[in-house]
Amino acid sequence: MDRDKDVFDDLEGMVVEEAKQKYSATVIDHFLNPRNTGIPESFDCYTYMSGICGDTIGIYVGFDNGRIARTGFVTNGCGPTVACSSAITCMVEGATLEEAMSITGKQLIEYLGGLPIENTHCADLAVNTLRGALAKMT
Ligand code: FES
């Protein structure tokens, strides 16, 4: 049993080391420790969207007094998609509807400390999903 755990820890360490060559520390942190996962107990709007690669994100948003107070996300996507979903839910904490709507993929990528070009569509998917959810409030 302990040997299986050691092998798993070694493999996990190798994967993380490989990821560090490609992704920023912020991306890896949001992937390994995603914030606001799952569906919040209460929310005012949500939507699901699929990207060009077929990955899907669902984002849930709840407001208190005109500001975003609760968020949650689910995804079947890749590591960068998890990181983008997690990061965008953090970016909108306390934001008004208009402020959250105005967040761009470029801003999300900057927040994450950059993304490889092949993963910029993951950021676009997260932004578009957030906007799709918020559009239901207008
Ligand atoms: S959303 Fe397509 S690879 Fe991440």
From TrEMBL:
Residues 23-136 form the NIF system FeS cluster assembly NifU N-terminal domain. This is Iron-sulfur cluster biosynthesis protein, NifU-like protein. SUPFAM superfamilies: SufE/NifU (SSF82649). It comes from the Bacteria. It comes from Desulfomonile tiedjei (strain ATCC 49306 / DSM 6799 / DCB-1). One of its GO terms (biological process) is iron-sulfur cluster assembly. One of its GO terms (molecular function) is iron ion binding.
